[in-house]
């Protein structure tokens, strides 16, 4: 059963098309949104988070229509949103910030609100930093705090816009662990540039380009896009720019087989890059 | 990291959520150094301004009111910072919370209540810091409420500006603009009955005491301004209601200002002054043969005056006239309460600590002494000094004063004792010192027996006590100076 239903969603910023007649049906689990800068990922997530109104199209989230004022408010009670730039109040302590956001999320009972704040602090492993001012937290801690505010109130729909950006590998692992658990019973929408995160976390991946979904499937299916199109060679291929030298000293080429090259094991990133290349060519032809 | 599923916490919409938000905003502003700094500065200003004089409600209301402007300024900045914190931090995450912008605006209005409570607390703390002294004068609750409404208005203005102009600089710039406007109001005012005079948030008493002050209407004006500022904030969310509130507030403030202008006379006429501070309204008490007459609500100061007067009066012989001590609030028409009875006037100020209280006591004791000895007819008189040099009553005045004032004998010997506007010569001081060296009863009995003679300006009646100073010739009437050049001082007659 889909918890997110998107039909013909469009949004323009002047002459720039951010979302172009987008259709998607999303259900429980972690869905990753991949795409280059300007693909429309953030616009889509902002629209899903009710922070932005689309120009045209239909949205139904958790059975509610965000275009209707009363339903939008109800929807906001069930959404957790981590924007690309969370903008945490630097002069607040971690606890104060979460307590204040909890009030804004209508957790009005003081005792239960405090318990909820402690719970999310524990979830993101910031309990020992509860009294630290936000401005004194490291970048990774701030990102975890931003996630914690999104988790307040047990949201049914979690929208995370590039949550792992700027995190070190250990912190990313912690994030993945948390998000994967959250996705077991909720709908988690995750926008990222990190194909490893998508491969590690998502049951479903949507690749966006120029406001459209150019791919919608499982990570395995995205990898399959690169089947037979990844090549390894000992010399640099001539006439191609889509190659790089890997740690083994071999040249990895995407696309047509260079002379003397042997097939390589495709990755999610290969599929993504090849898909975008094809998408770009299609866009150019259009 | 673990992800656990727990039952969703209880949520409440509507009024409960607004109250919870208001409480959260209250907790935040209570941690604001601006609030505490403003409150401390306001209290310090209020206390320092009135520290050296006995409190009166008129002076306290003015001091507390003016100090509340400082608190209002601090709250304006705090309110602006609170209202603009999302923009400052770029807090996009709060775009998707169920609390609407209007409710957040309503929650921020808690700062208005905090501002009012802070103003009231500072006012109360200012009063408590005066203990054990307690203000005298006419208590006017309306004017004291200014200290509540002004900081509340400052907070409301900060919030409104923060919602409309969230740029960080907008708060301080608004504060400067308001300060310039307020500072300009008294300059632009053409008189007590001008509209501009009454626009100033703190009512300035044109007449020190007693005069009708339309402070109730002033409070209405301030509340209307507060309502207009809140309306300005609400204009962002509920346009129609906000416009209605602003229009109503403008009308109410116009009516209030008009009523104040009508109720405040441009000048105070004699008949009006008589009605406010004249003999009919004075509270008079007689203690140890001395009549003390206080302005309405100032009777609590009579014991303070007694402390200054009685050390002098106790040494006066029974035959001596005991001047009346009269408190004066407005202008001095020079008419005594009882014709032919000497009178001294005391103002509506009295020192409270250390040298300030000593100064007040000394001034009153000197005035009483010179009046009791006939050196002045009404003390302190107009700014005209006279010379009592050589007169035996001057020696008596110095003798009386040296006993009445702390360390008086030494001060007399060192030439530090003053008789106010009455001048004396070193020989008079020496003669008074010689009198002091005689047994007190001997001098007192002599004065009791010869008081009328001693009081004669030309008398040498103290010669049996060894006083050899010679009075100057006493002119008849006040002869004008022959030329514009300053001559010797008039002889006290």
UniProtKB/TrEMBL annotation, chain A:
Q: Which GO terms describe its molecular function?
A: ATP binding
Ordered alphabetically, the record's keywords are:
ATP-binding, Nucleotide-binding, Transport
Q: Where is the ABC transporter domain?
A: 4-235
> Matching Pfam families, A to Z?
ABC_tran (PF00005)
Q: Which PROSITE patterns match?
A: ABC_TRANSPORTER_1, ABC_TRANSPORTER_2
Q: Which family does it belong to?
A: Belongs to the ABC transporter superfamily.
Name of the protein described by the UniProt record: ABC transporter ATP-binding protein
Automatic annotation (TrEMBL), chain B:
* Superkingdom of source: Bacteria
Q: Does the keyword Phosphoprotein apply?
A: no
Regions crossing the membrane: 33-52, 64-84, 105-130, 142-161, 173-195, 215-235, 240-257
The alphabetical list of record keywords is: Membrane, Transmembrane, Transmembrane helix
Region Disordered: list its residue ranges: 471-493
- What name is this protein filed under? ABC transporter permease
